[in-house]
Amino acid sequence: MLRSFFIYLSKAAWAQKLFTGWSFSWRIASRFIAGMTLADALRVVRELNAKGINATLDHLGEHTNTPEEAHQAAENIYSTLDAIGAEPSLRSNVSVKLTQIGMGLDESLCAETLERVLARAKAANTFIRVDMEDTPYTDKTINLHYAMREKGYVNHGMVIQAYLFRTEADVRRMLQDGVCIRNVKGAYNEPPDKAFPKKADVDANFDLITKIMLDASLAQKSSLSDDGRVPPIPAIASHDEKRIAFAKSYAEKIGLPKNGLEFQMLYGIRRDLQEALAKDGYLVRVYVPFGTHWYPYFMRRLAERPANVWFFISNFFKK
Fold first, then answer.
1. What is the pairing mode between strands 262-266 and 283-290?
2. 182 catalytic, yes or no?
3. CA separation for the pair 76, 82 (Å, rounded)
4. Long-range contacts of 273-280 (CB under 8 A, 24+ apart)
5. Is 280 a catalytic residue?
6. Smallest Cα–Cα separation from 319: which of 32, 25, 24?
7. CA dist., res. 313 & res. 287, Å (int)
8. pLDDT given for residue 269 in this prediction
9. What is Dmax (Cα atoms) for the chain?
10. Which CATH class is domain 34-293?
11. For an engineered disulfide with 202, which of 63, 117, 163, 187 has Cβ 3.0 to 4.6 Å away?
12. CA gap 266, 268 in Å, rounded
């Protein structure tokens, strides 16, 4: 029930206006958002890089309502890519949501914009992670990914959601083509005919997907690019220490080198774990969100697991 409530709040304009109007709201959210501007985000990336941690920049925004908003979102992405291209030492790539660039308005507009984003990313010598949203967009997102590959763009990867029944089949298909995949549990309110309702089942499927990806990484000799921008095939995106321990144990069992997988976490959460993994020689990439449209992102982090309400509050008081 709490999960559905937070998902509802993430989309409710009245709730956004109320919450963002409170004086303490940004003080709490800023623990998990890099800042309002690109300059803020770049500073954070440099700080992470200095600790041996790579980054993914995300100019927050989704579900644009007009073509003009979609075009503005694209301009923001171009600016981010240009900044990365202008600073070769920056070990970062970029995350993009397709509803941010018009998927919910006009699929042809979205496709044209994504192609321009990928071309701009190629010029900047970096990688695009195409995010996954709720199930009305799952097939559309995967189909557009393959349409871009057919046009010769291979500088992008996908996100899959372990709570969906379909995910194992999707992952096996993508891995045949060497697609870089980010494994997440999932953060939307999906019906019981599409997603595992129990956490234990989601965890088990997450580990299964991790195993499949690690096997593929070993078989395809996947590794991080020298500049830290293009990740290896498997990205294990979780703060759950049991999921991380499983990935480490299985990688060791099959002899997968540490540069053949990447652990990904969110900015501001479990910094201790991020730094410990990096010091132990594992690849770590932190998702660095920034911009003024932070409210939906913040609410979805709470929706992922209602216990995150306390998790976020407690993390506010520690590094």
1. parallel
2. yes
3. 10
4. 273/239, 273/241, 273/244, 274/53, 275/51, 275/53, 277/244, 278/51, 278/52, 278/53, 279/52
5. no
6. 32
7. 19
8. 86
9. 52
10. alpha beta
11. 163
12. 6
pLDDT single digits (tens) 2-16: 566 656 555 656 656
Strand spans (E) along 138-295: 156-161, 181-184, 234-237, 262-266, 283-290
What is the C-alpha separation between 299 and 304, in angstroms, rounded?
9
Q: What is the mean pLDDT of residues 233-262?
A: 97
| pLDDT at residue number 319 | 47
Q: What is the pLDDT of residue 110?
A: 97
Question: 32 — alpha (psi -120 to 50), left (phi > 0) or beta?
Answer: alpha
Residue among 58, 131, 170, 207 flagged as catalytic: 131
- Set 120, 129, 182, 301: catalytic member: 182
Please tell me the distance from the alpha carbon of residue 257 to that of residue 232, in angstroms, as a whole number: 11
Q: Strand, coil or helix: what is 290?
A: strand
Calpha distance 35→26 (Å, rounded): 10
Which residues does 198 contact at the CB level (< 8 Å), separation at least 6?
Answer: none
DSSP class of residue 100? G
